Every structure is written in structure tokens, then in C-alpha cells.
Amino acid sequence: MRFKPDTFTLALLSTVVLASLAPATGQFARLLDQATTWVIVLLFFLHGSKLSRQAIWAGIGHWRLHLVVTATTFAIFPLIGWLAQPLLAWALPAPLVQGMLFLCALPATVQSAIALTSVARGNIPAAVCSASGSTLMGIVFTPLLVGALLAHSGGSAGDPLEAVARIAVQLLLPFAAGHLLRPWTSKLLQQAGSKIRIVDQGSILLVVYAAFSSAVVAGLWQQMPLPAMAVLFGLCALLLAIVMGWCLWISRRLGFSAADEATILFCGAQKSLVSGIPMAKVLFSAAMVGPMVLPVMLFHPMQIMVSAVLAGRYGRRHDAANTLA
């Protein structure tokens, strides 16, 4: 398998270019901001509708695995960010330092974690339960972690408890409503098929355009020189390598099976762009959202491409072992 960007990554890059060349301003920007709020509500309603209760119960018994994934997502990642602050402050402009800390506080991905676990022949029910649980816990943990990390770095995300309440209203309520209405909506979602993915990805692209438009109007690219972007790319790669190494080490140290090891790797070492951008929109001012989400936008395609190669290797190793058996 090759390291190459997927269609969504190319669409993200194109959206950033469009926002840089033709940012939304004036009345259009205000209408766009209102539209993105409702788009995010729809996005999380669909996430709740797609979450199967059977999959939750099938995977919930693997408590040791879930504990490792949760600790990696909400303790190891933030700890690395906290320890790395002197290096980040030396290497990056202040907004990107805060963006890296925001990245470390985000929940794990859902769709890509499950898909990669499936390719790797990992524990799919546990991946569904762990990744979905991470999204829900992130609604509470992410604002609290961001408040603590940014307070130490000199930034601010406002009152963390107030942020939890705002995120709960905009993200958790639609998610819960979607899940409760699943008996009525699941058939419609199955009929829609791949069109739902268009809604998912289109929602994120719209929010990215709105976020970067505000940031560009506020002078984003004057504050972010190209060398800083190159350093940011390298630091994201280093962060990914450290956390993936941790996931492999702790999985083997605790004696997990190969299937569970793959699940821990692909649920624990990833961060969610789908949750991150809406959370940034709730937590930060419009002008701050652009630089705050730059690290997660770099980290997201990087984690997908590296994980795809590793998942393929896990899958081939599993198939070879079964053939020999």
C-alpha cells in the first residue's frame, strides 16, 4: 500500500485554498456561521443514528482494552502535550502551540478506527464500543483538558464547565436524539447508503471553509510562515510515532491478543477531525478556530495513511497464520 492522500484529504486542502483565496465576509460570513451550527447538529444526529446498540453490548465486556484506549486518548496524549510545551513554544508560533494542545485533548475517531480495525482483522465490536465511547467522553473531557492545558500555556478557552454545557447542547443532545430515534431512522440510513458519507464529509468541509475564512480575514497566513508549517508537520509526525509506539508497547506488556492489539492501536493513536472542528467552533472565537484546527487537519490524513499501511500488515499476518493453521 502506498502513502497517498484520499479524496477527502484533497477536498480538505482544496477547501483551505478556497478559503484563503476567497474567504467569506460580511453578511455571507454571518449566514455561513449560522448554517454551520445546524450542519453540526445534523452531523451528530446522524452519528447517533448509525450507532448500533447491539455493537455496544457486544464490545462493552472488554473493559481492560477500553481502559487502555481511554487512558491513551485522554491521559497519555495530553501528558505528552503538557511535557512538550517548552519544545512547542520554542518551535512554533503561540496559536499553533495551542492548536497542538487542543489536538492532544480531542477524542478518538469512530469511522476510520472501526474500518482500520476491520482491515487488520481486529476486535470490531470492541472497536465500535471504544471509539463511540471516546466521542461521548470527549464531550466532557475535551473542554476540561483544553482549559487546563491552555491555562498552563497562556491561552484560554473560557470557562471549561460552561464549554462542557455548550458542547453538550450542540453535540450530545443531537447524538442522543439520533440514537433514540434509531429504530425509525436506521432503515432510511441504510437506503441512503453512501449518500450519508457525502453529508458527513460535506458538513466538515463547510465548517472548515467557515473557520478558515474567519482566520484568513483575521490575518492567519501573515502569522503562520511556511517554515512554521513545516515544523508543525514534523511535530505531528513525531507525536503520532510516540503514541503508536506506546500503544504497541502497552498492548504487548499487558498480554493482549493480536486482534486486541490492533484495536488498541487504531482506536488509541487517532484523533477525531469530525469531533475536533465542531468542538473548536464551540470553544474558541471565530478568528481562533483556523489556527486551532491546523494541527488536527495535518494529523488526520497522516494517521489515516500510516494506519492503513499497518492495518494491511496486520491483516496479511492474520490471514497467513490462518492459512498455516
TrEMBL record:
> InterPro entries, from UniProt?
Na+/solute_symporter_sf, Put_Na-Bile_cotransptr
Name of the protein: Bile acid:sodium symporter family protein
State which residue ranges cross the membrane. 36-53, 65-84, 96-116, 128-151, 163-181, 202-222, 228-250, 292-311
Which keywords appear in this protein's UniProt record, sorted alphabetically? Membrane, Transmembrane, Transmembrane helix
Q: Which Gene3D superfamilies match?
A: 1.20.1530.20
Q: Which domain of life is it from?
A: Bacteria
